[in-house]
């Protein structure tokens, strides 16, 4: 298994000026989203028209949307219920006239409430942890009204579409600090001046997303897409399982456990609770590396790095190890579902812990090698515009940071030998 000569930097993959908000990609921000043009470029080279694509950590569904535009059926999994909702809404065709009818009625009601004599009617307030710490009384009233109003939208696809705009707005009208993934509140002296226009922000997002959807509907091919809550780490396999297996995987797994890298759960929690999604507070625990493991990794490309970390911090070494054990389990499940000539494309970052670099790219190559895959290439790209942390604290001392990731690797392997189907 050779990785050295197949790993190279290619600046054409930096995609510095790419419009990352085309089509339904404009629907909702999320940490560490994949740039659509990466999935698009990979589909151009490795896609199989009419074939099946799998994204085992689909997040907001970037590769599912691109698969629909290319002409592949696709299935995505994620343990985060909020992104399952977003990925579903982004890839589901909706009848535009039904949507427009609902949006026109909603917008005119909101206009009446804002500029007419209307008072916002009282609506039930959901049970949300520390609600008044995160939202002003006025914002709570408006959100409760909208939540109640959305509940009554009959068409499920339209309701999901509206919920996604609601979700992104919840973060913006809350007291959370802008530009943070974790739940941090803005400074107390800023709270009094923070009076967001809830209905205005919501209407703008609905309109933006409606235009993105129209562009998507024009270009998408007639393919199937589904989003599943199967956890491949636990050996759960998503449905449907295409005959002969999936042809292509395009995915970007987490860089490490949510507690010490990107807190997907914290990012999503308030919106997920307002919408009433299950497990809203458990995402970071359910995510890869979220639970300690008694197993140890032996003879793996990350083993020596983990030993170096262990020599300075045993607890961190266990956390890092738990992540790779989960990643390997997930790859074992994913490999079972792939066709005899499948291609996998994993976009991964080699993060640093305690100043030690973890070669996640080599780990992926090695894990797929066990399942009959040959390494084709590892393309190294600069990260110019992805929303993710570029610094971490190696010492966990506030203010002491070191650069973690300015680059990421696109690992490509192809199956050339046996298949487990
Ligand atoms: C880098 S993000 C994916 C972003 C996605 N490509 C996009 O463009 O939105 C990684 C995702 O992995 C998910 N995740 C973590 N552990 C998982 C697991 N065991 N099974 C499925 N998804 C998981 C996280 O919830 C997160 O959404």
Secondary structure layout plus pairing:
Elements: E1 7-9, H1 36-46, E2 52-55, H2 62-70, E3 73-77, H3 81-91, H4 96-115, H5 131-134, H6 137-151, H7 156-173, H8 188-191, H9 198-219, E4 225-228, E5 246-251, H10 264-275, H11 283-286, H12 303-312, H13 314-336, E6 338-348, E7 352-353, E8 356-357, H14 360-369, E9 373-382, E10 391-392, E11 402-403, E12 407-415
Parallel strand pairs: 1-9, 2-3, 2-5, 3-4, 5-6
Antiparallel strand pairs: 6-12, 7-8, 9-12, 10-11
Helix pairs in contact: 1-2, 3-7, 4-9, 6-7, 7-9, 7-10, 12-13, 13-14
The structure holds S-adenosylmethionine.
S-adenosylmethionine (SAM) is lined by residues 30, 32-34, 56-57, 59-60, 62, 77-80, 83, 231-233, 252-254, 264, 287-288.
How is this structure best summarized?
The chain contains 14 helices and twelve strands.
Describe the structure using short key phrases.
eight-stranded mixed sheet, alpha/beta, Rossmann fold, binds S-adenosylmethionine, 2 domains, 12 strands, single chain, 421 residues
Ligand inventory reads: S-adenosylmethionine
Overall radius of gyration: 22 Å
Poorly predicted residue ranges = 390-403
Number of structural units classed as domains: 2
CATH class of the largest domain: Alpha Beta
> Kindly, what is the distance between the CA atoms of the first and last residues, rounded to a whole number of angstroms?
24 Å
Q: Determine the CATH topology of the largest domain.
A: Rossmann fold
Biggest sheet features: 8 strands, mixed
Beta-strand proportion: 5-15%
| Count of extended strands | 12
